[in-house]
Design goal:
Elements lengths: L6 H22 L4 H42 L2 H33 L22 H6 L6 H7 L2 H17 L2 H26 L1 H16 L8 H25 L5 H7 L1 H10 L6 H11 L4 H14 L2 H17 L6 H16 L7 H13 L6 H33 L5 H5 L6 H11 L2
Helix pairs in contact: 1-8, 1-11, 2-6, 2-7, 2-8, 2-13, 3-9, 3-13, 3-14, 3-15, 3-17, 6-7, 9-14, 9-17, 11-17, 12-13, 13-17, 14-15, 14-16, 14-17, 15-16
Length: about 425
């Protein structure tokens, strides 16, 4: 029987071909109207955007049903409270480590000190960032229906947790609803599989459009800033997360990274933590061996409030812009940056580019010129893709740590390299069509 190529491998191949195709178009087809009109802004844009919409389509119903299953699966409100406090504490801890690491590495590398192009800033007028008090108030939805319609993840999570706790407290009626939610969740996971069948096509068009517009050459003038962010992302990815996985979850970090590959590819191609929730949830349960009761709670929560990659960008960008404008920041201002970036990550939606809005808030707090954001906008899309990979890895790391503490992690699944591979998950679906 011939070896079947996994969907992850197909997506990886599509991503590389898309990157190369986009870079070639950027190099040789910038002034060709037919290519720009019908390919870059036509075919690439339509199919890429449709694929991202298909992923986003899954998020709200999947989070709703899986979160209900998760809360009801935990079964005890006191245990739920313990898991929630652990998750929040670990998310804040990893974000604080990320921003501190970013400021330290940026201070050593010194990006922006020799930057001679501070005058040629693009106009950037950020939307006003909400006060931190409003962020906490807005966790509670005034209108749950509106929260679901707008996809406001923090409000949806709050409402669904309250609703699921009420289900636990209503006895038989709640148990019947929980059984229905489990069936609906199973159907939604099948919808995820159907969307995954088209993933290589969607990823190819997303990558082709991004690099046909941006081009690899755009990175060169910003190499100091770019390299500082990359170094911090790698240190946090291979350093912080590997240590946490090894010491707190007592798992093999190499195996963990290998099993996260499909989630990494989706995160990179979509640059959206929210769009990657269905894949990350599937990886946590089927590949890493985390029980649904924990994964269904921590993965959506992490995608909403855990933004280590965004925090790293904010730290490096703060040092970069301060160097460009020759502004010396005091130690107290650096402490403010750490606090603001950590808190801002809680209110940051898991969608592409939102880090720039949060960055404007941080700049305002320490007196840096907000128009300096125009300098980093050019390379931000590529870095946003990398930051999202770090974000979803952080969500899975915390999920594994909590699962270990709650005895909700199956080591036999984690240690089996083939467990939960996409082709294996799809076998019943494929056979059903024969």
């Amino acid at each position: 029987m011939p070896h079947k190529t996994t969907i992850t491998t197909k997506i990886l191949i599509a991503m590389v071909i898309g990157l190369l195709s986009g870079s070639l178009i950027n190099a040789f087809g910038q002034d060709v109207a037919v290519i720009q009109t019908y390919l870059v802004n036509g075919l690439f844009y339509i199919i890429g955007a449709a694929f991202v919409n298909a992923l986003k389509m899954l998020v709200v119903p999947l989070v709703t049903f899986s979160l209900i299953c998760g809360v009801c699966g935990i079964g005890d409100v006191s245990v739920l409270g313990r898991v929630g406090i652990k998750a929040l504490g670990l998310f804040i801890l990893t974000t604080a480590i990320a921003i501190t690491l970013a400021l330290g590495v940026a201070a050593l590398i010194g990006p922006g000190k020799d930057f001679a192009n501070a005058q040629s800033l693009s106009d950037f007028t950020p939307p006003p960032a909400p006060p931190i008090t409003e962020v906490f108030i807005n966790i509670v939805p005034g209108n749950p229906v509106q929260a679901f319609a707008e996809g406001n993840m923090l409000q949806i999570i709050f409402f669904v947790i309250v609703f699921a706790i009420a289900m636990l407290m209503t006895g038989d009626v709640g148990r019947q609803l929980a059984q229905s939610a489990e069936k609906l969740n199973e159907v939604m996971m099948k919808v995820v599989t159907l969307v995954m069948d088209f993933a290589p096509i969607g990823v190819f068009f997303l990558m082709a459009r991004t690099f046909s517009e941006q081009g690899i050459g755009l990175v060169m003038p910003m190499i100091g800033y770019f390299s500082a962010v990359i170094v911090c992302l790698l240190l946090h990815f291979f350093g912080t997360f590997s240590l946490l996985i090894a010491l707190m979850a007592k798992l093999n970090p190499v195996m963990f990274i290998q099993k996260m590959r499909s989630a990494h590819i989706f995160a990179f191609s979509t640059a959206s933590s929210n769009a990657t929730i269905p894949i990350n949830l599937q990886v946590a349960e089927k590949r890493l061996g985390v029980d649904n009761s924990i994964a269904a709670f921590t993965i959506p929560l992490g995608a909403t409030i855990n933004m280590d990659g965004t925090a790293i960008m904010q730290g490096v960008a703060t040092v970069f812009i301060a160097n460009v404008y020759a502004i010396d920041l005091s130690l107290s201002q650096y402490v403010i940056v750490i606090g603001m970036a950590t808190l801002a990550s809680i209110g940051t939606a898991g969608v592409p580019g939102v880090g720039l809005i949060m960055l404007a808030m941080v700049f305002n707090q320490v007196g840096l010129p907000v128009e300096g954001i125009g300098l980093i906008m050019g390379v931000d899309r590529v870095l946003d893709m990398l930051r999202t990979v770090l974000n979803v890895t952080g969500d899975a790391t915390v999920t594994c740590i909590i699962a270990r503490g709650e005895n909700a992690l199956d080591d036999s699944i984690f240690n089996d390299p083939e467990a939960g591979s996409v082709t294996e998950i799809e076998l019943p679906h494929k056979k059903a069509r024969l």
